[in-house]
């Protein structure tokens, strides 16, 4: 870390904004006297924070973006880096905030009493990235937050029917994790699905579109892909689904050919909405076959997917945030929501309403500038703790509006709240 700045502050009022690496990394303003949220379990450093860049013992650690409000009426200072996305740290020492970074950083302070400094920064970032108008997102029903990996074709049809009969304003029926035979094996089905082509035809028969979840850059140790192509694998992508995980070398042309085949096949099977997840696995540290940097490799992989799906809607998730500007239509800006309010191990990158709300608010300024913000799905069945609060977060900050309850489990309030939020999608313009 090299010194960047040292700012006299009012320690009682100073605040520090820390931007996390990927969708699930906690992102928020904090009192400068505090310490930022940190992973609790070791694999989480790789899966929900930035691999190889652990945070400091005390103070704050932003990835590519950090801001300091001195709390004395002086301007907010926004620190950001270039394409290599430096880590930027800040700590309160003797009435000063000391800022340091592991790469070149520039400071701007274009905010004012009426202009949010992060929004002002994001306007410049979006302009530099060549961003134009943002595409509106469809509304969606997602299978994940009720069925999880046990989802079956019958479950999808049950909810399609319930949505249709209740005339809910759902544009896309999105099948989440559980349809595929393995993590990396996207060309074959799990035993719980018979035919994607017939399923998308049934969905289209009700006037709706079909969406599907894929973790395109992730490979499970148990997959057929890992057995067939060990030379395609790189790095350590963590552990989930009871198996170790690796990333793909997206600079290997055989790998991008394979990705094109996967996405062309799904597109031809009737899908035109893709939730692509665990994208951090395409940007793991370490050398690639071609010598491209991890973030160049990531962009190469993302472009291969876009080529295969044409103008289908593309929603990023588990994705390095700043390197994805211009590569997706929508972006998950938060950790997973959950029926439980608090994360069970205290780690705000893990599923919980508190963690999802934290970064949804912390990244609100990205909506309408970088993409449509996805705060994660509305869940409002009676079993959801403090469900009114989550509905308010989605109402206030949800650009992409999706729901994820089993429709039959909703009571009258849940059904009407779902209907209302899906019927009142905000335009893809900045909230602030
Ligand atoms: C499907 C889910 C849903 C969800 C995504 C993502 O082990 N983990 O650290 C971990 C983090 C996030 C996660 C799953 C596991 O959720 O955000 O909406 O699609 O994958 O598996």
UniProtKB/TrEMBL annotation:
Disordered: annotated segments: 26-61
GO MF annotations, alphabetized: alpha-galactosidase activity
Superkingdom of origin: Bacteria
Keyword DNA repair belongs to the record: no
InterPro entries: Aldolase_TIM, Alpha-glycosidase_related, GH, Glyco_hydro_36
Pfam families: Melibiase
EC number, as in UniProt: 3.2.1.22
SUPFAM superfamilies in UniProt: (Trans)glycosidases (SSF51445)
Top-rank EC class of the record's enzyme: hydrolase
Keywords, comma-separated and alphabetical: Glycosidase, Hydrolase
One Gene Ontology term from the biological process aspect of the record: carbohydrate catabolic process
PANTHER family according to UniProt: ALPHA-GALACTOSIDASE C-RELATED, GLYCOSIDASE FAMILY 31
Official protein name in the record: Alpha-galactosidase
